[in-house]
Amino acid sequence: MLKLENVSFKVDVDGEVLEIVDNVSIEVPDGAFTVITGPNGGGKSTLARLIMGIEKPTSGRILYNDIDITNMSVTERAKLGIGYAFQQPPRFKGLTVRRLLSLAAGSELPVDECCGYLTSVGLCSKDYLNREMDNSLSGGEAKRIEIATLMARKLGLAIFDEPEAGIDLWSFSMLVESFKAMSKGSHQSVIVISHQERIMQLADEMVVIAGGKIRETGPKDKIFPKLMGEFNENCGFRGKEE
Amino acid sequence: MEKIDSNLLESIADLHEIPAGAYNIRKNGEGFSRRSTANIEIVTKTDKPGIDIIVAPFTKNESVHIPVIITETGVDDLVYNDFYIGEGAEVLIVAGCGIHNSGDEKSQHDGIHTFHIGKNAKIKYVEKHYGEGDGKGERVLNPVTVVEQEEGSVCEMEMVQIKGVDSTVRDTKAHLAAGARLIMTERLLTHGNQYARSDMEVYLDGEDASSQIISRSVAKDNSKQIFHPNAIGNAKCRAHVTCDSIIMDDATVSSIPAITANSADAQIVHEAAIGRINNDQLIKLMTFGMNEEEAEEVIIQGFLK
Fold first, then answer.
1. Which of A75, A90, A149 sits opposite B289 (nearest CB)?
2. With bands split at pLDDT 50, 70 and 90, how would you rate the model's confidence at A241?
3. What is the average per-residue pLDDT within B124-145?
4. CA atoms within 13 A on the CB side of B121
């Protein structure tokens, strides 16, 4: 179980204090598929980075399985079984996809296992295993490999920051299938930051964040109907017009 | 063979024992052991220090190892190695120099290598430089490489210097006849107060000659690196020059790729980049459970692989 207690993250920009995340308290139950949504700039990505430890809260506590992880490093949290997929995955010159997946898994992975992960994110595995994770990959390809690196890990909590961004519509359907499988399968808990209605429909729990504050939180069946009418024509959630 | 000798040989030539095929091992400025084969003849030069390596035309799937090791302090070794690769031959050449200097005097090896590569011949040349030893004596390597490629020949060169060499000035020149192809990869890691400079001139003289020059380096601590490759197109040809460096700590890297076209049909491109390891790369690997130092090591190793 992940628990955020009164977590805030403030930054000082030219003397002006901005509350990126403002006194957020949430609970993510074990085994749940939780979607965090809300308008751009609302603090969703920062919240994910706070959970992974990439940013440290300016106040509040984060507990994971009853352990206070607020001051733990990214490495320590990773060792506890928390994983994070970047919205914009970093590129590595010289690192092959196979090596990256093996680094994620913590040991050299057999070819067929790597292929399994790549196939489930919609990549033809034999074309990609020995490709380098460098700038020769398109944004969508890099993004799918990033998702595969989380599948290769044994995680208690997997966090995906806008997995749909940069992925074409056709591949998006495959991705939804992968998340569906994931929500039933390997990871104990999954948090996905998303604007996509089809990903929200997979959710058990939903959190709506706007202006750094929680607007709604609860089971999908309760929250999702309230958001109807706030989607644009591409099924992307935009939030209420102010 | 002594322990230091075999350690050095393993570092520079992946040799665990006396190699199969032709070889010449040079130690502390003198020939140490040698074997010629039916198709590859190694002979001592009579006019200056060094050897001629003569590969018979159409020799296939053979290799020649010519490692140099220096285990004494205060050695100043200058050697001329000339390779004559016969028409249509295909060979692997493994060279390299390992210096173990545990004294306080400078030990230096300057290898002047000249390759005469016959028509349609194909060679792969691997050269590793490595230094070790806890003395204050400097370990210096100044290789000079001259490549003359005849029509349709292919030369693939891989030069690696990963550790322990205090000072290196590398000078490389190549001339390519029609249809010849040269792929040159240089990989370098400097640390401490090391200095490395590499000057390269590749002349694409014949029609449809092509070349790819790739330099990848990591500069740590207070080390200093200078790269200056120049691809010169004298005919309808293609060449690509890439210099890519990771800079760390207080190191200095200077990349000066140059391209020259003396023919309107020459297509030559260069790219150069110098940058530090970015934070997202480190964080990504840390989310796999690595600490920052481990993540850095993985990034550097991948980059230089």
1. A75
2. very low
3. 87
4. 29
Mutual orientation of helices A139-151 and A111-120 as an angle, nearest 10°? 120
Nearest by CB to residue A103, choosing from B216, B298, B305, is B298
For chain B, positions 277-296, list CB contacts with chain A under 8 A. Answer: 278, 280-281, 283-292
- Cβ <8 Å between A83 and B287: yes
Q: With contact defined as beta carbons under 8 Å apart, do A24 and A1 qualify?
A: no
Boundaries of every domain in chain A: 2-227
Helix axes A169-184, A139-151, angle to 10 degrees: 10
A151: left (phi over 0), alpha (psi -120 to 50) or beta: alpha
Task: Copy the structure tokens of residue A138.
Answer: 């398109």
CB contact under 8 A, A93 and B287: no
B17, containing H or E segment: none
- Residue B16 burial (CB count, 10 A): 9
Q: Which fold has domain A2-227?
A: Rossmann fold (3.40.50)
Residue in this structure with the two tokens 């604007």, named with its chain if needed: A195
Enter the pTM of the model: 0.84
Q: Which residue has the tokens 């490389």?
A: B172
Check CB contact of A240 with chain B, cutoff 8 Å.
no
Token pair 């590969």 in the structure block, residue: B55
Q: Which of A89, A92, A104 sits opposite B288 (nearest CB)?
A: A104
Q: Is A148 helix (H, G, I), strand (E, B) or coil?
A: helix
DSSP A58-78: SEEEEEETTEE-TT--HHHHH
Alpha-carbon span B233 to B257, nearest angstrom: 14
The pLDDT of residue A24 is above 70: yes
Helices and strands in chain B: count of H runs, count of E runs: 3, 22
| Residue count (chain A) | 242
Inter-chain CB proximity A89 and B285 less than 8 Å: no
